[in-house]
Amino acid sequence: MAAKIIDGKKIATDIIKQLSSETKKFIVKPNIITIKIGDDPTSDLYLKLRDNACKKININSEHKVYSADVSEEQVLKAIKDFNQDKNIHGILIQFPIPSHISQKKLIDSISPIKDVEGLTPQNMGRILTGDEDIIPCTPLAVLNILKHEKTTLKGKNVLIINHSTLVGKPLSILMLNRNASVSVCHVYTEDLKSYTSKAEIIISAAGVPNLIRPEHVNRSSFIIDVGIIKTDSGVRGDVDFQQVKDLVNKITPVPGGVGPVTVACSLKNMVKTYKKNMDMI
Ligand code: NAD
């Protein structure tokens, strides 16, 4: 039997519809600011995608753009001002940023209640203590996909292939919070197959094409492909989709899987920071 191919666009549309019914009741329009430093062309693409998504649910998306030679102090000062500005309900930083500016310092300076991406130490710490609040968008997208598929995590063997702060670290704790048995693999893992063979759910976010092949899956596997790799023939993920899709239970495609749900979850977090700033939650 062919695998169920998860329609990420449909899941995203449902999330956006639900958010839209909420935001249309807001008297004050949510206002989110994105800080962009330098002129990385992919950043412009992401900004445009985010702006279009914001328009759909009546969120105002502003940009604060700096040239690549801006000082760290200047950006930190701007974040401090945005933290205090009652008309700004959420702050995002568009990565990558130039290497003379500390990514960590910028993130750490964002007010936790304006932290749309859930990356501040306070929001990350709340995941660790089981008091989850604003969850980083990609891990939140994975949780939403699993929820949509009514997949329970309790007692399941979950394998996460990624140990970054953005994806693997928070996701592994989120899975533990839901009582899954979690393994985390990364670039230094030897014998990936010994981990994939035990996993019922594989979440791959390595950014390595064909990392997950037929020998890594079985009939009951649920494969969530977070990887995004740009190739001459378009965007693809970590999974050898053509070879694997008929050998598993469920699989997310790239494009059209985790990506759109991540964008929808970014909107979800914007609505959450808005409500926090308006004392609605
Ligand atoms: P990153 O470079 O910080 O992390 C990559 C992770 O993959 C690391 O843990 C690394 O150890 C691991 N890895 C690399 N090569 C490996 C290998 N051969 N075997 C096992 N593990 C390996 O990147 P990131 O920001 O965490 O993003 C990871 C991927 O997810 C990228 O392709 C990125 O584009 C994608 N991504 C997708 C979304 C989405 O919405 N779909 C969102 C964020 C990131």
Mean pLDDT: 97
Give the percentage of residues in beta strands.
15-25%
Assign the structural class, choosing from mainly alpha, mainly beta, alpha/beta, alpha+beta, or little secondary structure: alpha/beta
Lateral strand order in the biggest sheet: 1-11-8-7-5-6
| Basic shape | globular
Bound ligand species = nicotinamide-adenine-dinucleotide
Fraction of residues in helix = 25-40%
Write a brief caption for the model.
The chain has 281 residues and is α/β, with parallel strands linked by helices. The protein has helices at residues 8-23, 41-56, 72-84, 103-109, 121-128, 137-148, 168-177, 192-196, 241-244, 258-277, and strands at residues 4-5, 31-37, 60-66, 90-94, 157-161, 181-185, 201-204, 222-225, 229-231, 234-236, 250-251. The strands form three sheets. The protein has a six-stranded parallel β-sheet. Strands 3-2-4 form a three-stranded parallel β-sheet, with helices on both faces.
Overview of the molecule:
By secondary structure, the chain is α/β, with parallel strands linked by helices. It has helices at 8-23, 41-56, 72-84, 103-109, 121-128, 137-148, 168-177, 192-196, 241-244, 258-277; strands at 4-5, 31-37, 60-66, 90-94, 157-161, 181-185, 201-204, 222-225, 229-231, 234-236, 250-251. It has a 6-stranded parallel sheet. It has a 3-stranded parallel sheet with strand order 3-2-4, with helices on both faces. Helix 7 links the parallel strand 5 (157-161) and strand 6 (181-185). Helix 6 packs across helix 10 (258-277). It is globular and about 55 Å long. The relative contact order is 0.17.
